[in-house]
Amino acid sequence: MRIEFFYWEDCPSHPEALDRLLQVMREEGLADPVEVVLIATAEDAVHHRFPGSPTVRINGEDLQPEGAQGQAMLTCRTYHTETGRLSPLPTAAMIRRALQAARREDGGG
Amino acid sequence: MPLAIGDRIVPFSLPATDGSTVSADQFADRAVLGVIFWCNHCPYVKAWEDRLIAIQREYAEKGVQMVMISSNDPVAYPDDSFDAMRSHAREKAYPFPYLFDESQQVARSYGATRTPEVFLFDRERVLRYHGAPDDNFERPEEVTSRYLRDALDALLAGGTPAEATTPPKGCTIKWRP
């Protein structure tokens, strides 16, 4: 499974988001490496189609694809949570769903 | 450096989304004045927004006025344009003025760096609290320290906040190049 974590240093949500991703991976018994990618410039943002920090892609699929359609830019990203709230962080449930879907597609059950 | 606890308010006069011009001194009758750096696009602002609206509604009759100021560069962040601010303030029925600091001079004079970032002034307009609204932007039901509410309650009771400063948590203010 390919797991990518993209972040912009100016947005303070990334340490907590990465911790949350790693925690959910541990809970799911996944030991795949996480590629952590710093987005430092507007050019990086365009190159990586970066809609905001943090962005997590699993096998190339965004955790919340509907939130990844905007212009690539250096900004904090807004996630729409299961409870209807807006948050700078993806929820653990959102991460878990994406990991489980990717595992099924990879044939891992 | 941001304003320090004990500093006096820095006056401002800025255009508001309702078409008026709002200055700090027009709230002289209010017991407490909150100057809060704010914007449209930041997810931290979005996460705290309903709580700040509720606080303003709840504390208005106690003599509290909050004023939200966006200083972000709208060229780089079009969601923070004055037009977008007007639309958003209408959509959310903001109970506080929402002001546009186009020159960014007000943010610089306060030493603000984040959105949201709260500066709370007492009746003499001396800074008594600076920082975040509370300690959990993500889950309101899990807030354990209600910094802003506690500071308001302390000031309205004639005291000073037990916790006068907390680290502001939010997006950086987007400075013009």
Structural notes for this entry:
- The complex is a heterodimer of chains A (109) and B (177).
- With 109 residues, chain A is of the alpha+beta class.
- Helices cover 31% and strands 18% of the residues of chain A.
- Chain A has helices spanning 14-27, 42-47, 92-105; strands at residues 3-7, 34-38, 55-58, 61-62, 79-80, 86-87.
- In chain A, α1 packs across α3 (92-105).
- The model of chain A has no long low-confidence stretch (mean pLDDT 94).
- In chain B, the strands form three sheets. A five-stranded mixed β-sheet of chain B has the order 5-4-3-7-8.
- The mean pLDDT of chain B is 97.
- In chain B, a hairpin with a 5-residue loop joins β1 and β2 (21-23).
- The relative contact order of chain B is 0.23.
- Chain B has one domain: 3-Layer(aba) Sandwich (Glutaredoxin), CATH 3.40.30.
- Chain B is α/β, with parallel strands linked by helices.
- Chains A and B meet through β6 of A and α1 and β9 of B.
- Structural class by SSE content of chain B: alpha/beta
User: What's the average pLDDT of chain B?
Assistant: 97
- How many β-strand stretches of chain B? 9
Give the SSE order of chain A as H and E letters: EHEHEEEEH
Coarse morphology of chain B: globular
Strand order, sheet with most strands of chain B? 5-4-3-7-8
CATH third-tier fold name of chain B: Glutaredoxin
| CATH domain class name of chain B | Alpha Beta
| Tally of helical runs of chain B | 4
How large is the share of residues in beta strands of chain B?
15-25%
Cα gyration radius of chain B (Å)? 15 Å
- Give the proportion of residues in helices of chain A: 25-40%
Short descriptors:
heterodimer; A: 109 residues; alpha+beta; 4-stranded mixed beta sheet; B: 177 residues; alpha/beta; Glutaredoxin; 5-stranded mixed beta sheet; two-stranded antiparallel ribbon; 20% strand; globular
Question: What would you say about this model in short?
Answer:
Chain A is α+β, with helices and mostly antiparallel strands. Chain A has helices spanning 14-27, 42-47, 92-105, and strands spanning 3-7, 34-38, 55-58, 61-62, 79-80, 86-87. Chain A binds chain B through residues 10-13, 73, 75-79, 85-89, and chain B through 41-44, 46-47, 76-77, 137-138, 169-172.
